[in-house]
Predict the 3D structure of the following.
Amino acid sequence: MMELEKYVSEVLPRNMASHGLTVCNAVLKPIRVLLEQRRIPEDGWNDEEVRLLLKLLSMMDTDKDPDAARVGEREGRAASPLVAELAAGFCHGVGRSGDVVAPQPKAPGGSAMYALANTLASDAIRRFGAPNLRHAAVLPLSTGMSIALALAALKKDGRHVVYPRVDHRSPIKGVELVGLKVKFVEGVVEGDAVRVPVDDVVEAVDRDTAAIISTTTFFPPREPDYVKEIAKAARDLGVPHIVNNAYGVQSREIMRMVRGAADAGRVDVVVQSTDKNFLTPVGGSVIAAKDEGVVERVSSVYAGRATAAPVVQFLAAVLCLGIRGYERLRDEQEENRKLLEKLMVDVAERHGERMLNVFNPIACAMTLTRWKPAEVGAALYNLRVSGPRALGPEDWGVCCRRYKVAYLTMNAAIGASRTDVERAVERLELALKQVERRD
């Protein structure tokens, strides 16, 4: 900037030079403030501001050096400009073979970008509800793979993981990936809710237990685990405890539960998805912990360098949203959840069904006593409604040996609009009528 200011001052009249430099400084100010404060901005940036930051950082990587002699097998080469753009110019990726968050000599810009993304991830987890989880890192992995990474880093001697039953294949496959077995703790139907008693979780822990995985977010009628009580038990038993908080950051209620668990007992790592919480393309997650050393241990297990794409997408997303933008989305999510329940109650009552009385800040469920769940699900799919789940009492997904009734769930997750909710419920009404006519 010093050279630019000197040149402009020499070749332009003073008033023109002053005005031009004022504009330039105004454009660069958000970047200066971000790098000084290292916090998510209160107000979101526009796309051009984000592009400028990413361009400045990516230009530091060695594949941009016009005088370099690149003879290695991995030099950030791209088949076309489009291919490079798909990674925002960070063709060298992030990390080193021994540690995904370690600075990469060929990627000074990518390494700086990754460090900034991790700083903002920590800021996001703290400011969106869990200030006691002071350290975080963005991983270019799904939540299931990140759970596997955490297990590989944290597991004590043992052969199985105690898992309050959630019928979700990703965490289960993550456990199996690191050579452990899943020891399910069955769900129990209490009223309309499926819950896993804490006493049963404690009883399942033995000398062969490598870790406990609890869950905060899933489809009703499965309710969140009693993560606070499980955290206390994990502390008393000396067993690592990983919390699968897949889409919990969007919910203020869920984040209060996570914060309470981390305060009350042992919570080693909390894993959350970037796409489900921060509106990025699929492929990333944020791991968070109270102890910086735990985040470092998990990061060091990652094998090889990593793609920068999910990391830079998270960084761009939180900069575009800002704190106020994200809180507005949370407000909308809460309002849409209320609207979804109201509209589904009306549909249920018109068709002789009822809503399930289950705690879930994101999704609702209603009974399907007069319809075959598979037919309702197929009808909704054909009506272009994405996301609902229609299950029978013994289907995979009910999280217990047998639920008492068939049911349908719908979500009002962050980023969904009021129109999405209204349209989905209107088409639910149509789907029920279509299936009813066929019968």
